[in-house]
Write a structure and sequence with these properties.
With about 110 residues, the chain is mostly beta strands. The protein has one helix and six strands. The chain has a five-stranded mixed β-barrel with strand order 1-3-4-6-5. The N and C termini lie far apart (about 45 Å).
Amino acid sequence: MANDLNKVLLIGRLTRDPEFKSVNGSSVVNFSIASNRIYVSNGDKKEETNYFDCVAWGKLADILKQYAGKGKQVAIEGRLQQQSWETPEGKKASKIRIYVESAQLLGGQGG
């Protein structure tokens, strides 16, 4: 049986500085990126922005902590993972995050 593929590649800008913590002796950073898309619809130029929550572990987390900051453009490659939980009200909730496996810092700060 063939394996399925779960791979994502995005280029965007960090919406905030990475949040660093240590879990059981391993480094982890959480961050969010905004990715813009410009397109034409009915002759009008439009822009769409999507936001993605990301997490990176280990040496990559250390590098992002040191060199990445709000506004920095980054190319990330990773996999999607859905997390599910029950809210205090008893409703089911879920969130999809990108687990970053590689990253490349691009360009300069800001827009």
